[in-house]
């Protein structure tokens, strides 16, 4: 039920802080340590390479998850779009572990990969919001997202839940390997939940930015580097699917290799800067597009901000920034769709779970 909310999407955006807290609770033992199915831990430890398979928003969560698993647990990861896997099947390592990320657990493109790799005898883990779903039943192991039903076609709380569970998976593997992490992941996730709350409390700010940037335009660009590049890809998908604005998320460094030709007088460009190592370069990209007439907006994070930034996200751990930075992006897409009179919860041509290949 929507309750007092005008749309499920808005309700689900607001549910993100409690979902993160629920995940912390579900994956925590009595001593505040991470609690994970020992079989999943063993599968991670036994594997020499993780292959993440997903579609759409879940694929975008996988791109972030790869960073966690590689940086924290030191296990190599490849992320593949499910529908491409059969044509562009990579050479597999000796001991692959396949990780399927799927809100619904019913995505046919992902399932066809699961069927194929099972024939090859490889182990599989499904990370899903629906434990009894096809992908969950057919894989060897399941991790539950605990996000509660997601009704709006545009995925929001499932994306952040997927990222949170991927952090837990990565940290658990790291700890099992005796790698010493210099932060308390569950505590940092708790901070993220509070920051998300402060963001969802500032809806008018994002409504205004959306009105200003997206009411009239036919196209829009998001730019980011490093971790932010993954989030801007998700930001542009959100905007596309519910507002029908032609949007693209670019890596800042790629602009000069072609895409900057698309910038005209008034083209909206939203830049995201939450990573210290790219803060300087992404701001350089903003100046480059501004010089060509773009209408720009910078969303940054506490500690890296400048006076002219449109919005500054409160501080969260640098690895966990996608959990916070995606919230303004979801709200921008939501209000863009609203201002353009689009059917927010049921965008044209889309289904919530895509059960055909
Ligand atoms: C976007 C969206 C889709 C899904 C994709 C995969 O907002 O909802 O891109 O993420 O269809 O669906 P699941 O995660 O159910 O496999």
Automatic annotation (TrEMBL):
UniProt protein name: Glutamine--fructose-6-phosphate aminotransferase [isomerizing]
Key words, A-Z: Aminotransferase, Cytoplasm, Glutamine amidotransferase, Repeat, Transferase
EC number(s) from the headed UniProt entry: 2.6.1.16
Active site (record annotation): 352 (for fru-6p isomerization activity)
Residue ranges constituting the SIS domain according to the UniProt record: 40-179, 210-347
Gene that encodes it: glmS
Reactions the enzyme catalyzes: D-fructose 6-phosphate + L-glutamine = D-glucosamine 6-phosphate + L-glutamate
Cellular localisation: Cytoplasm
Quaternary structure and interacting proteins, as annotated: Homodimer.
GO MF terms held by the record: glutamine-fructose-6-phosphate transaminase (isomerizing) activity
Highest classification ranks of the organism: Bacteria, Bacillati, Bacillota, Bacilli, Bacillales
Its biological purpose: Catalyzes the first step in hexosamine metabolism, converting fructose-6P into glucosamine-6P using glutamine as a nitrogen source.
């Amino acid at each position: 039920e929507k309750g007092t909310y005008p749309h499920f999407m808005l309700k689900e955006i607001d549910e993100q802080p409690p979902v993160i807290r629920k995940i912390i609770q579900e994956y925590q033992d009595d001593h505040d340590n991470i609690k994970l199915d020992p079989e999943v831990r063993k599968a991670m430890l036994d594997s020499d390479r993780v292959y993440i398979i997903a579609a759409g928003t879940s694929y975008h969560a996988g791109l972030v998850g790869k960073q966690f698993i590689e940086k924290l647990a030191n296990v190599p990861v490849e992320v593949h779009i499910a529908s491409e896997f059969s044509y562009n099947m990579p050479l597999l390592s000796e001991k692959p572990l396949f990780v399927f990320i799927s809100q619904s657990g019913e995505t046919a493109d992902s399932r066809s990969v699961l069927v194929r790799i099972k024939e090859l005898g490889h182990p599989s883990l499904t990370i899903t919001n629906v434990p009894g779903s096809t992908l969950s039943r057919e894989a060897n192991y399941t991790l539950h997202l605990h996000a509660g039903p997601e009704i709006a076609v545009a995925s929001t709380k499932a994306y952040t839940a997927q990222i949170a569970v991927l952090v837990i998976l990565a940290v658990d593997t790291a700890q099992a390997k005796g790698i010493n992490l210099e932060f308390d992941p569950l505590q940092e996730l708790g901070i993220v939940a509070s920051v998300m709350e402060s963001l969802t409390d500032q809806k008018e700010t994002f409504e205004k930015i959306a009105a200003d940037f997206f009411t009239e335009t036919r196209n829009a660009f998001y730019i980011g580097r490093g971790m932010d590049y993954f989030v801007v890809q998700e930001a542009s998908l959100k905007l596309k699917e519910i507002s029908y604005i032609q949007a693209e998320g670019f890596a800042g460094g790629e602009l000069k290799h072609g895409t900057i030709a698309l910038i005209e007088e008034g083209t909206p460009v939203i830049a995201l800067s939450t990573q210290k190592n790219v803060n300087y370069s992404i701001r350089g990209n903003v100046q480059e597009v501004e010089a060509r007439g773009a209408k720009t907006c910078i969303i940054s994070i506490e500690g890296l901000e400048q006076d002219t930034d449109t919005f500054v996200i409160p501080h969260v751990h640098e690895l966990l920034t996608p959990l916070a930075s995606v919230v303004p992006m979801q709200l921008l897409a939501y209000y863009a769709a609203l201002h353009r009179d689009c059917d927010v919860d049921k965008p044209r041509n889309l289904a919530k779970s895509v059960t055909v290949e």
